[in-house]
Specification:
about 200 residues, three-stranded antiparallel beta sheet, globular
Length: about 200
């Protein structure tokens, strides 16, 4: 061109200009190193774009009470917490029984649980592990199942344990986004419930 102007470069494979206007006067070797006008034009997705996200991993879920979490706890015979499992508010109770049994604590002789944990699979799993389930049957059960209601009365200690945990505002109304953070505060609250046991021994 007479006035030193360059013609408009042809369209590239990505339907954009094959090179930037600022690179028009550069040598070919330098233009090869120039940045493309479309940075992410590859056929493959960006690194990390396929990562699965979801609140279910953090123990959140939709329930009648809204967007909530459900705390499943395992306690000893005195109603002192031994471990916790988090699920979404809409999850059935019996789905957490495997994680509760898998907690690294001593195997109990009896497992006292409310009707939410009543399931044939749960009962069979406990019996195979040598644990006697003390769980009242649900009202919609077709076959009646015996329950030791005399032993079941001790489950009120677990309810009292939950009442003490809910006295901590951060436990009663979950402010933590991640499950690991919330479980950390549950562990601190559990440690406080255990403290009188060790103080009385000294």
């Amino acid at each position: 061109m007479e006035f030193g102007l360059c013609p408009v470069p042809p369209l590239g494979r990505a339907r954009g200009l094959g090179r930037l206007a600022g690179n028009a006067g550069r040598a070919w070797a330098h233009r090869r190193l120039a940045a493309h006008d479309r940075q992410h034009h590859g056929a493959r997705p960006l690194s990390g774009s396929g990562r699965k996200r979801g609140t279910h991993k953090e123990g959140f879920g939709r329930s009648r009470g809204g967007f909530t979490s459900k705390i499943h706890a395992r306690a000893d015979g005195q109603g002192r917490p031994l471990g916790f499992v988090l699920t979404g508010g809409e999850a059935s109770d019996y789905k957490a029984i495997d994680d509760l049994i898998a907690l690294p604590v001593a195997k109990p002789r009896l497992m006292l649980a409310d009707k939410g944990y009543d399931s044939d699979d749960v009962r069979a799993s406990l019996l195979l592990k040598g644990i006697l389930p003390v769980i009242p049957p649900k009202a919609n059960r077709k076959e009646a199942i015996a329950c030791d209601y005399r032993a079941y009365k001790d489950r009120n200690r677990v309810e009292r344990m939950f009442n003490k945990l809910k006295q901590f505002r951060r436990i009663a109304t979950r402010y933590d986004k991640t499950a690991i953070s919330f479980l950390g505060f549950l562990a601190r609250a559990a440690a406080k419930l255990w403290m009188p046991t060790y103080v009385n021994r000294t």
